[in-house]
Write a structure and sequence with these properties.
Urease, subunit C, domain 1; binds (4S)-2,6-dioxohexahydropyrimidine-4-carboxylic acid; about 425 residues; about 30% helix; alpha/beta; 19 strands; 8-stranded mixed beta sheet; binds zinc ion
Length: about 425
């Protein structure tokens, strides 16, 4: 279907946290944008539009995942931009922000543009995140203005956190001058050498070296001090995949002090603990690692009480042959794009009683706000025609083998999900469902 043809989504219940609408509405998408939102049966310009019957379904802004690894360039055997974004579309995501730990590292406008080229075959919008330093080596800053001009929406060295105070301070200052956020994977890697899971009784039982909580919280506290010292409201620090109560407390305090510090939490960190590693299950190996029950509960609490700005998956595909090795040798990471909505609806909405609108906000409007993605995460007239239509009541069992991602490395294989995506529309094109 051509992107210019119109789509009318009729008979659904529209929930748009951005505009506060939570009511039965019809919506018209035209030329890649939201053209009209009207009471049921009252669309004025819908003549000739393709009709999606959303009776009994929820219509909401397309989800936005601000932390994914799409593996291209360089590791197409794990995932490609085409397969990763197909997984995104199946999971209800219409935009993803792609981490720069590709091969080569995305530290240039050329790679940034390559990732966004139509030849990659992306089903949904890809927003590249540029490396903060050359080769993500933590030494020399990249040209942030050039990265931004090419399409980068933030900078980070992700899995290679910036340890040197001076480099991190310069990164925060330089990024703020061009209006980019700095994302930090908070891990003091001097404290995690040789560690493959969380420190604690499980690591002790398995004979594995553990990562202390302070490796995360210590770096978050250091980064917040740097933000404070810079004394500029243009400086924005975003803490990736927060996993410890101590780090969340530091973010909470920074916000009380009026600093622009935001954070995200991944579904696995509010659902699983290091006990799930069980008998060396490499599908429960990721970085940051699964933590104690107390930390897991703190993540859930922080999501409920509003300290957490966004749910992000840290979708990190790895091939089976890479995961089917000794625990310590297996790479970190699990997939997440196809399970996030179903897990959030089951556990945040149904179990923890978070209103549906808030769950959707954590997956759309709020992540859009974190990275300043204008015209995304809302269905206000004029915004991008990024929409999902889903049945909030259907339970289904996730089978990794049937997923769209190239990789199968998930601890949620066989889990029961709540809420089934019926259609995903990205910039006016149906990219999932028919
Ligand atoms: O679990 C993770 N996977 N953590 C990281 O820091 C990197 C990521 C990956 O790229 O696989
Ligand atoms: Zn990551």
């Amino acid at each position: 279907m051509s992107p210019t043809s119109a789509i009318a989504i009729k008979g659904g219940h529209l929930i748009d946290p951005g505009t506060g609408i939570d009511a039965p509405k019809d919506i018209l998408l035209k030329d890649g944008r939201v053209a009209e939102v009207a009471a049921p049966g009252k669309l004025k310009q819908a003549a000739g539009a393709q009709i999606l019957d959303a009776k009994g379904l929820v219509v909401a802004p397309g989800l936005i995942d601000i932390h994914v690894h799409l593996r291209e360039p360089g590791q197409g055997y794990k995932e490609t931009i085409a397969t990763g974004t197909a997984a995104a579309a199946a999971g209800g995501f219409t935009a993803v922000a792609a981490m720069p730990n590709t091969i080569p590292v995305n530290d240039s406008p050329e790679i940034t543009r390559w990732m966004q080229s139509p030849e990659r075959g992306a089903s949904v919008r890809v927003f590249p995140i540029g490396a903060a330093t050359r080769g993500s080596k933590g030494e020399t800053l990249n040209d942030f203005a050039a990265l931004k001009a090419a399409g980068c929406v933030a900078v980070t060295d992700d899995g290679h956190p910036i340890l040197k105070d001076s480099v991190m301070r310069d990164t925060l200052a330089a990024a703020s001058r061009v209006g980019l956020s700095v994302i930090q994977h908070a891990e003091d890697t001097r404290m995690t050498v040789g560690a493959s899971m969380n420190v604690g009784p499980v690591a002790f039982r398995l004979g594995l070296r553990g990562m202390p909580v302070e490796a995360e919280s210590g770096l978050v506290e250091r980064d917040i001090r740097l933000v404070q010292d810079l004394r500029s409201d243009k400086v924005h620090l975003h803490v990736a995949h927060t996993s410890t109560s101590k780090a969340i407390e530091a973010v909470r305090q920074a916000r009380r002090n009026g600093l622009r510090v935001t954070c995200e939490v991944a579904p696995h960190h509010f659902l699983l603990t290091d006990e799930h590693v069980g008998h060396y299950d490499t599908h429960c190996k990721m970085n940051p690692p699964l933590r104690s029950a107390a930390d897991r509960d703190a993540m859930l609490e922080a999501i409920m009480d509003g300290v957490v700005d966004a749910i992000a998956t840290d979708h990190a595909p790895h091939a089976s042959h890479e995961k089917e090795v000794e625990f310590e040798r297996a790479p970190n990471g699990i997939t997440g794009l196809e399970t996030a909505l179903g897990l959030c609806l089951a556990w945040l909405h149904r179990e923890a009683k978070m209103p549906l609108g808030r769950v959707l906000s954590l997956l759309s409007a709020q992540p859009a706000a974190v990275l300043g993605l204008r015209g995304r995460g809302t269905l206000a007239v004029g915004s991008f025609a990024d929409v999902i239509v889903f049945d909030p009541n259907v339970e289904w069992v996730y089978r990794a083998a049937e997923g769209k991602s190239k990789s199968r490395n998930t601890p949620f294989d066989g889990w029961t999900m709540l809420g089934k995506v019926r259609w995903t529309v990205s910039e006016g094109r149906v990219v999932y469902g028919n």
